[in-house]
Amino acid sequence: MRTEEPRHPERAEHGKPLGGVRILAVEQMQALPYATQLLAHLGAEVVKIEPREHGESGRASQPALTDDDGRRVGATFLRNNLSKRSLALDLKHEAGRELFLRLVPHFDVVAENLRPGAMARLGLDYDSVAAAAPRVVYASISGFGHLDASPYAHWPAYAPVAEAMGGLYEPTRPPGDPPRVVPAGALGDNGSALFAAIGILAALRHREQTGLGQHVDVSMYDAMLALSEMVPQLWSLGAPAAWATAGSIGVVAGFAARDGYFVVSVFREHHFERLVRRIGHPEWASDPRFATREGWARETEPLLRPAIERWAADKTRLEACEALCAEGVAAGPSQTAEDLARDPHVAARGMLIEVPRPDGGRPMLVVGNPVKLSRTAEGPVERFPRLGEHTDSVLQETLGLGPDEIRELREQGAIG
Length: 416
Description:
By secondary structure, the protein is of the alpha/beta class. The chain folds into two domains: 9-228 and 350-412, Rossmann fold (3-Layer(aba) Sandwich); 248-334, formyl-coa transferase, domain 3. It has helices at 31-41, 75-80, 94-103, 118-121, 126-132, 159-165, 186-210, 220-227, 230-236, 269-278, 293-298, 300-312, 317-326, 337-342, 344-348, 391-399, 403-412; strands spanning 22-26, 45-50, 64-66, 72-74, 84-88, 109-112, 137-142, 215-219, 251-257, 260-266, 330-333, 352-355, 364-367. The strands form four sheets. Strands 5-2-1-6-7-8 form a six-stranded parallel β-sheet, sandwiched between helices. α1 packs across α7 (186-210), α6 crosses α7 (186-210) and α7 (186-210) packs across α8.
């Protein structure tokens, strides 16, 4: 899907569900920018507040490309800021803070993911913003939250830290080995982003009923605990600790085919019967070694793997998965980035957006909106903003500032 090409344009007459919703975002890196980009896909206008000299920290990530204003722009920024407007504003400058508070009543949502306490030190925390605009929904994403006391409140947190604390790493940690940390942080950031988006939408709905905004407070730790909910729940039921460990119950593993690996997931007896019949060992369905789901896991390496891989040796990943899925056995290929770029499902669903590169390279791929609506057209999607690209237009349109006022603010160093 290209940025300038909407999907299902015949649905455009219905508009977008968040059309008219305005979000003022003091955001950085991944979690909140991903949340607000999802909301932008659904029609919200997102005005991004950026430090006026270097922009938000995601711009400094790597790899990077050179924008047409000569600035280097990092991958984290590039993938999370489509269709947003950039307002370069120095919130440490008194005039910058005053300008921010003047903007607040013109927005439905104020969102931030600075380190806890940073917005309060600037005089821009929820209480300060609510005093200026009681109807505003104020959303925060942080490591450990704001609304309740946490012994970790002062800790900084990146996604892998929240993932580890939430219990995601222990089920896959081999005994005696350290946790296998995922540096990409997809769950810690994007999982928190999804809960933030849900919270913002819930608070907007509540405002329709009451006329009042509120503070939407998302802790990354809480979000990761929600995603790993099976671990404490099984423990509380007295289940063996191993039940929460990958590969300890059922058949859950990757197997080699002719051109790579595919993953099989079998947790029910009738699916196990179909699996062993399909790979040429129907007798295993009544074999005492496979009498329990724990037995399936125990015998995966010594018996099931050799048999499944012999069966799949002359098949591609897709052919093996097609054959298993035809039996009702869940299976799917383990895909690379190149595989995803060629996948017909991804293309049909518009799940990769081609963003033209200002440096002339091949289009950059950014993940599309996974929320599909039958009466909403997707796109067109606008490119990532240059630093401060919309400063003048936002101030003119929203506050009615004239050229002389804007020039004075720029000379003071309040805006970029």
